[in-house]
Amino acid sequence: MNKVLVTGGCGFIGFHMIKRLITNNYKVLNLDFLGYASSKKDLNFKKNYQFKKVDIKNFVKLKEVILDFSPDYILNFAAESHVDNSIVNANPFINSNIIGTFNLLQIAKNLPNTFKMFVHISTDEVFGSLSLNQKKKFSEKTPYDPSSPYSASKAASDHLVKAWGRTYNVPYIITNCSNNFGPRQFHEKLIPVIILSCINKRFIPVYGNGKNIRDWIFVEDHCNALESIILNGKVFSQYLIGARNTYSNIGLVKKICRMLDMIKPNEFGLKSYLDLVKFVKDRPGHDEKYSIDPSKIEKELKWKPRYNFESALKLTIKWYLNNLNYWN
Ligand SMILES: NC(=O)c1ccc[n+]([C@@H]2O[C@H](COP(=O)([O-])OP(=O)(O)OC[C@H]3O[C@@H](n4cnc5c(N)ncnc54)[C@H](O)[C@@H]3O)[C@@H](O)[C@H]2O)c1
After folding, report:
1. Distance of CA 90 from the midpoint of ligand 1 (Å)
2. Residue 11 contacts by C-beta under 8 Å, 6 or more apart in sequence?
3. Fewest CB within a 10 Å sphere: which of 33, 50, 207, 286?
4. For 118-151, what is each residue's pLDDT tens digit?
5. Of 93, 79, 90, 71, which Cα lies nearest the Cα of 230?
6. What topology does CATH give the domain 3-186+216-245+288-307?
7. Which of 12, 56, 150, 226 to mutate to test the pocket of ligand 1 (most atoms within 8 A of CB)?
């Protein structure tokens, strides 16, 4: 049975990955410092699962638990992940995302040679911005050009991973994924903000003119890609993960409002939830467009997203409607 150390498994994507790993018979140790966007809810597996509250910044403690578990794989999800927070205070981003990754690599470098792979879960935001009217997409060849403190910290950690691979032979794969959505995402992120604003009759804040474009992937498809990478990915390499769902922010808001108008017609006397849209001052350094070319993972690993965007969005909306107090 393969042993997988997951960092940040009480957050959004790590949680879904752990569920998948347990279902598919991996043995999992989840390390998380239980930050503001994390929860242990629904992580109550009886077999093959352990949780330890560990901060990846704490090298001594981290080393003790990793050596004791002796993982075959490390999946590094742990990170401060919200761009807006990084603009207000970059400190935790530098510490968790860069120093935390450095600590993990220092430990991974001395693991026995049965250790198979350090999978570093990163973002397409490391590539900076495409321009709105450009057809170009990000690929594994795109140079790094991060715009926010968040994306710069992730870019720095990606570089550390590559360097530890080249210098110390730590077997790694870096993945850069587009924007995730799905059940249980913390309510600071765009899709939960839209849904919860509608349900609570609050303004739906849209940055600038709403024309910025993001590329969306359902979280289950991201995790499915990560499992393909564990099973068949080529070590010392990088894969971009995306599902070819590019929408402008305002386009996405309209889509969700129209779906909600059908699923849960508002009781506030509004013609549509769209009446709640409010354009607000743009985010500084706001990237115009992200768009991923996932050809490499599609060809090499025969991976394809399984979920249709609209049905995954509906499923997500319904989850929030049924779990309004999840994060309380
Ligand atoms: N959400 C996205 O759209 C997206 C897209 C691409 C890549 N990613 C990357 O995927 C990873 C997970 O993202 P997410 O959306 O699940 O984030 P999240 O904020 O929901 O979860 C992050 C988890 O990491 C934990 N954590 C943070 N710092 C830690 C530390 N020092 N020690 C231990 N645990 C710590 C938090 O407590 C939290 O449980 C991140 O590395 C992020 O950069 C996210």
Report:
1. 15
2. 32, 35, 37, 38, 77, 78, 81, 186
3. 50
4. 999 999 999 999 999 889 999 999 999 999 999 9
5. 71
6. Rossmann fold (3.40.50)
7. 12
